[in-house]
Amino acid sequence: xxxAMGINLHPGEQVLFEGHPSWRALLAFYLKxxxxxxxxxxxxxxxxxxxxxxxxxxxxLVVLVVIALTVLIGFIKRVATTYTITDxxxxxxxxxISREIQETRLERVQNVNYRQSAIQRMLRVGDVDFxxxxxxDYNFVFNGVADPADVVHRVDVATGQGGTVGLGDERAxxxxxxxxxxxxxxx
Length: 187
Description:
Elements: E1 15-19, H1 27-51, H2 56-79, E2 81-86, E3 89-94, E4 100-105, E5 109-115, H3 118-123, E6 125-132, E7 140-146, H4 148-159, H5 176-180
Antiparallel strand pairs: 1-2, 2-3, 3-4, 5-6, 6-7
Helix pairs in contact: 1-2
C-alpha cells in the first residue's frame, strides 16, 4: 500500500492522490525573478557607469545571485507544499521548518471545481477548489496541480460520485441501473 509522506493514515485508509504544485505552475514566478534580475542588472550597470567604469563582473554576479535565489525559492515553494487525497479526507501540508496543515473529511466536501487561465491551460495546470461545509471563510484549494481534471475525478471516485467501480478501473462510467444490477462477469 502506498504510504502518504505528509499524513498519518488511519487503519484501512488508502491514498488516492499525492502530489505537489507542478513546476509548470511556477513558470510565472521564475519569469518574474528573471525580469527582476535583468532590471537590477541594468540599474547596477547604469549606476556603476555613472560613477566609474561599468563593473561587468559585479553586474553579472548580482544577476546570477538573483536568478539563483529565484530558482531556489521556487523549488522550496514547490516541494514544501504537498496535496493528499485519501479515501476519507483531503490534506494540504505547507512548509519545511514551520508547518501549516489544512485537512477536511471528504463528507464535508460539497463541490469540487477547477479553473484554468489561458496560460494555465497551455501549461496543463490548474487550481482545484473544494467547497466545504465550513463555507466561504475556509479556503481549500490545490493550487497549480498538473491535470486538475484528474484530481477532480479522484475526489469524485473517493466520494462515490465518480460512477466507476474503483480508481484506475478502465470500464466506462456506470448508470445507476448498471450499478444496482452488475453483469455476471463483473460481480
